Amino acid sequence: MSTRPHLLPALATAFAHDGTLDLASCRRLFAHVADLDVEAHFVAGTTGEFVALSDDERIAVLEAAVEEIGTAHVFAHVGAASTHQAVTLAHRARDVGATRFAAVTPYYTDVPGDALLDYYVRLRDVLDGDDELFAYVFPARTGVDVDPERLADVVVAAGLDGVKVSVPGTRYVADLVASLPDDVPVYSGNDALLPEVLDAGGAGVVSGVMQVDPAPFLRQAQALRAGDRAAALAARADVDPLVAAVGPSLRATKQRLVDAGLFRTAVVRVPAARHPRPAPVAPAVAQV
């Protein structure tokens, strides 16, 4: 098991009451998390509602993140339904200072034959040789289900630097890690399963929940780095209730950011159920 787990908060995108982009609130969140002891921040991804942003809005959000957090600690998500759009976004994101990139697989239509490889090869080609590029797979949302062995072949052939996986459990992570070179990191979107992700050979987790209360996630990661698995598992008393309360609802995540004075509204653009406002989690008494 790795003792150097990476944490990557997946940051939300703020909107005003009328649904327009609230870049000032985005900047407030970015500045707030900039000094966290994490590998990087995942920006304009699924939690960032990238599918509901125009290309200009995505670039504005990415530029703000680079300015507030720093280029070394931002993963700019540039994935799109078409290779043309993803390549254009990657080129523009480089122009505003991004050097670390992730791209979800194309979505909505099937991805036949070598199309997936071509997608990532063309993205790799538009980036500088020192830039990082991660594949991002999320079959439940994209409709593109890539088996681990095929994905590993694409990663190696396209010269990608890693993979972010949003698949339940850790079996996919383990199978993918077994198929990849040892120096290619795999991140999981299962933010409540950091110890298990490491057991499966993964490098860490991308967490949409962590932005609302980083402390228990940081405490768990620090325990794992110190080799104290008991303390890492004990941190679940705080991590699990938070993930259960906030994780299923982007609106609940944003409400927590409103409560913290970071966002002005909990408005979401993607279709979302209106959940009741979650009760505060008291870490000292929370039960799993």
What this model shows, in words?
- This protein has about 290 residues and is α/β, with parallel strands linked by helices.
- It has one domain (about 5-260): Alpha-Beta Barrel (TIM Barrel).
- The chain is built from 12 helices and 8 strands.
- It has helices spanning about 25-35, 55-70, 85-95, 115-125, 140, 150-160, 170-180, 195-200, 215-225, 230-235, 235-245, 250-260, and strands spanning about 5-10, 40-45, 75, 100-105, 130-135, 160-165, 185-190, 205.
- Strands 1-8-7-6-5-4-3-2 form an 8-stranded parallel beta sheet.
- Helix 1 (about 25-35) packs parallel to helix 2 (about 55-70) and helix 4 packs parallel to helix 6 (about 150-160).
- It is globular and about 45 Å long.
- Residues about 280-288 have low confidence and may be disordered.
- Belongs to the DapA family.
- One of its GO terms (molecular function) is lyase activity.
- This is Dihydrodipicolinate synthase/N-acetylneuraminate lyase.
Strands, helices and their partners?
Blueprint: E1 6-9, H1 23-33, E2 41-43, H2 55-69, E3 74-77, H3 83-95, E4 100-104, H4 115-126, E5 132-137, H5 139-142, H6 148-158, E6 162-165, H7 171-179, E7 186-188, H8 194-199, E8 204-207, H9 214-225, H10 229-234, H11 236-246, H12 250-259
Helix pairs in contact: 1-2, 3-4, 4-6, 6-7
Overall domain count: 1
What is the CATH class name? Answer: Alpha Beta
Query: Strand count, sense and closure of the main sheet?
Result: 8 strands, parallel
Which structural class is indicated by helix and strand composition? Answer: alpha/beta
